[in-house]
Write a structure and sequence with these properties.
- This protein is an all-alpha fold.
- Helix content is 80%, strand content 0%.
- It has a single domain, classed as Ferritin, core subunit, four-helix bundle (Ferritin, Up-down Bundle).
- The longest helix is centred in the C-terminal third of the chain and has 35 residues, at 127-161.
Length: 167
């Protein structure tokens, strides 16, 4: 059975709220300063996603239509900061650390969000709803890409450290 637009919006807000709390909690427990900063930034981004979705939810429940979503503006400074932090985090943590486990969990979290948003974007008939979920899928996809990059580097380090390579 197809889920209603307001049910999807509620699910999305809940998903983003859980993500925010997860990232905030992880940031508080990180020993790595770079990991802490990345998780704090991701928590703040989830706040933006929640605001973005709540605005749509309020409009949808009142008017039964979606607002034309405004794509988030890329902050070039934030991209540079994330790239620097990504390099630092790779040096500060090991693949068996709390932070690495949190990164692995966060990848699952982000990929579930991407899956939900892509699915809804494909199902949507309202162009504004389609655009909303496409924007969110891309946003979460960037989070996932960053986390996967860090995770892959950590895994490679374990392989090299333990001489698991066949050559």
């Amino acid at each position: 059975m197809a889920r209603s637009a307001d049910d999807i919006l509620k699910e999305a807000i809940l998903l983003e709220t859980r993500g925010k709390l997860f990232y905030k909690n992880v940031a508080e427990k990180c020993d790595s300063p770079s990991a802490k900063k990345i998780f704090e930034m991701m928590s703040k981004e989830e706040d933006e996603h929640i605001r973005f979705l709540r605005e749509q939810f309020i409009n949808y429940t009142q008017k039964h239509s979606f607002l034309k979503p405004e794509a988030p503006e890329e902050n070039p400074e934030e991209t540079v900061i994330l790239n620097v932090l990504t390099e630092k985090i790779k040096k500060e943590i090991t693949a068996a650390s709390f932070e690495a486990a949190a990164i692995s969990s966060a990848i699952d979290f982000e990929e579930n969000a991407v899956k939900l948003y892509k699915s809804r974007a494909e199902e949507a008939t309202d162009p504004n709803e389609k655009e909303l979920y496409s924007i969110l899928a891309a946003w979460e996809g960037e989070h996932s890409r960053l986390l996967v990059e860090i995770d892959n580097t950590l895994k490679e380090d374990i392989w090299y450290d333990n001489q698991f390579w066949a050559f």
